[in-house]
Amino acid sequence: MDDFKNKDYNSDGSGASRPDYYQPNNGGTYYNPPRAEEQPPVQENTTYHYAYNNSTQQASQSNDYYRPKDNGYNYSQPAENNNDGKPPKKSNASKIIIVVLVICLVAAVIGIGFGIAGNVGTSDDKDKKNETTQSQSADDAASTKDSEDVPLKDSNNNYTVAGVADKAMDSCVGITVYSQRTDAYNYFYGYGQGGNSGSEPTQSGEGSGVLMSEQNGKTYILTCAHVISDGDSFSVTLNDGSKEDAQLVGFDAQTDIGVLSINKTGLKIAEFGNSDKLVVGEQVIAIGCPGGLEFMNSLTSGYVSALARPISSNIGYDNECIQIDAAINPGNSGGALFNMQGQVIGINSSKIAATEYEGMGFAVPSSTAVATANSLIKVGYVEGRAKLGITYNQITNFNNANAVIQALAEKGFKDAQGAMVIDSVDDGSDLKNKDVKQYDMIVAVNGETMTSTDVMTSILADSKPGDTVKLT
User: Fold this and answer.
1) Which residue in 50, 133, 225, 396 has a CA-CA distance of 20 to 30 Å to 254?
2) Which of 204, 213, 235, 333 is catalytic?
């Protein structure tokens, strides 16, 4: 704390307070500390959580979420979309259009060449060729007409890929995340004379989601925690192109599941299946926004490559994920993974992004996602977990952070970039009984210096309600 004395605090999972320091309380939005501006170097072998970033994708240690267990490859989320409120660039789309036009032009030139060659000959030959051309044109027209009738179900009454798209597409949405940068804060002197005057929210990321449920005049959207965790406000784009302002219900970093809500009902709610019944080799379909909303609700198809893959987060929590080979790209995070009955059986979360690897994506099973989301909707946090019951501001957000970190190093807390400045304390938290107040600072947990906020998260993940932790 501010006097750097050791104090004991009880974690408590009951009541209206949060199960850990980063979760919102009773459906309210939690305070998410802004991240430092600088990005670490890109790691060579990485796996991204696929929220869309309009700028160059970077793997950041602070953004790393998943890592494969004991195999040396990192599983991480992509850098956020730092487009400063500008609309997504269309350079990629332009390149695609140019390539298509060139191919069409080349095809036209080749066609003319064959036409000229065909004109060399007798008039009888020309008549025969004209008859052949007319016959081929008629066949082509008949063929085109037949291809319009694409079956939506096969002989076993399962949906085809087109059938799944027809059933599920209206329940899939795009998510736009906006962040509000606040003026730099001085830990000792507070804000400047203008007070805490934040800037206008700017677009900071894009991702995918799926309409999960409808209750009490709201529709709830299931997505990934890493898509929405840094946002201050949100917008949801429906499949018909309409946009709705969204509110943060909550998110859980351990399972990488988050929930938004919109004040609109009567929409197409997705049907959820039992992910526990999946088998290896089963066909699956991913729907999301690769590249952001510019390519909203793109569909890719693949197969279940493996089940219950133990994927470890950098907070020390193992998730058993579905491994798939369907294409997953930046912006797919939070999108639904469907079975061939058109049921959601997973939420797409990450993939291996090393250059030597292809077709290794991972999804949070629907059984985990739905249970987590229902708890977030019900009480605003995941029940049964240990918590401190605080909101905080990371020390690196203060304009004199370097001086404070240096002062902490001189007191024996080296590299305390993860030190947490308390913003508020829940009424149900044991900290209320310890004379802890706003702007007190946590620099160590159980004697371990807060080199990052993951130190706290990891310890809480291994704790249960009623356990005691020592905060410094």
Assistant:
1) 396
2) 333
Domain identity same for 337 and 466: no
Q: Grade residue 387 by pLDDT with cuts at 50, 70 and 90.
A: confident
DSSP for 344-363 reads EEEEEEEEE--TT--S-EEE
91: enclosing H helix or E strand: helix 91-118
Q: Show the domain range for 303.
A: 39-108+152-380
The model's confidence at residue 42, banded by pLDDT at 50, 70 and 90, is very low
For residue 398, the domain's CATH number is 2.30.42.10
Q: Which two tokens stand for residue 388?
A: 């401190």
Structure tokens, 350: 């990450």
Say if residues 214 and 41 touch (Cβ distance below 8 Å). no
Mean pLDDT of 22-27: 37
Closest CA to 463 of 15, 21, 7, 4: 21
For tokens 């269309």, the residue is 90
Burial track 68-98 (b if 16+ CB lie within 10 A, e otherwise): beeeebbbbbbbbbbbeeeebeeeeeeeeee
Q: Which of 62, 213, 226, 366 is catalytic?
A: 226
For residues 303 and 422, membership in a common domain is answered with no
Paired strand residues for 8: 470
323/238 same-domain check: yes
Tell me if 19 sits within 8 A of 385, measured CB to CB: yes
Whether the CB-CB separation of 359 and 325 falls below 8 Å is answered with yes
Q: How far apart are CA 345 and CA 334, in angstroms?
A: 13
Measured CA to CA, the distance from residue 250 to residue 228 in angstroms comes to: 9
Whether residue 258 is found in the same domain as residue 400:
no
Dist CA 321 CA 231 (whole Å): 25
Total residues found in the chain within this entry: 472
| 208 in catalytic set | no
| 54-104 confidence digits (pLDDT tens) | 443 333 333 333 334 444 343 444 334 444 444 444 444 333 322 333 332
416 in the same domain as 323? no
Tokens of 298: 């793109």
pLDDT(4) > 60: no
Query: Is residue 172 within a helix (H) or strand (E), and if so which, with residue range?
Result: strand 172-179
Please give the pLDDT value at position 409. 92
pTM over 0.90, yes/no = no
Known catalytic residue at 256: yes
123 is catalytic: no
12, 252, 256, 440: which is the annotated catalytic residue?
256
The verdict on 435 and 312 lying in the same domain is no
